[in-house]
Amino acid sequence: xxxxxxxxxxxxxxxxxxxxxxxxxxxxxxxxxxxxxxxxxxxxxxxxxxxxxxxxxxxxxxxxxxxxxxxxxxxxxxxxxxxxxxxxxxxxxxxxxxxxxxxxxxxxxxxxxxxxxxxxxxxxxxxxxxxxxxxxxxxxxxxxxxxxxxxxxxxxxxxxxxxxxxxxxxxxxxxxxxxxxxxxxxxxxxxxxxxxxxxxxxxxxxxxxxxxxxxxxxxxxxxxxxxxxxxxxxxxxxxxxxxxxxxxxxxxxxxxxxxxxx
Length: 262
Known about the structure:
By secondary structure, the protein is of the alpha+beta class. It has helices at residues 2-50, 57-93, 105-121, 131-138, 147-164, 210-215, 223-233; strands at residues 101-103, 126-129, 141-145, 170-177, 183-190, 237-243, 246-253, 258-260.
């Protein structure tokens, strides 16, 4: 009798959990659909303007940069959606979908910075990769990681930095190490501060701080959540440091993932 009651209670709990997951997923899909509309509309408008012979060359170059920037946003949203699906599947399988591979972290940082530089340029924000820090931390080593997952995790952090940074400011990407020899990449920006009460919640699925919503109304609130999930798969973590308007996120991997570059 007791076993039957326990089973009923477990079934009830699982039903409630499934309903909650379904509700969150539906809300996420609605948010993504809404956010896809804006960049698609901007791209369409820019292409129409490019077809106008009266538009000067200088203006057309600006329009092309805008198209690239909006396309980056689109790709980023779609990759986040795919990553969420893959993470759920990988969690069930208990393993990575793709095989981890040695990755040159300085090259990865430079490529990601280049991806978001056009978007940052619109607010006159500069993304700087501090090359020397990568030489100091990684030397001739690489990290054996699932490259696509980690790229998207770091992209989510960079995107937030660009979105909430002050105009005319600078975002820096540097290689870092900790006392217990974890290694990784830090992204530091100057902009909207993260309230102390929000620090414990920023990695929760769907969470967005009040200040963030005031500056950018649209948002899914899953970027940092997905990034933290990716790091958990690598037995790593994301460290957050704030000092007034300075925000620093560091993705940190255990040192046993370091491999010599061949």
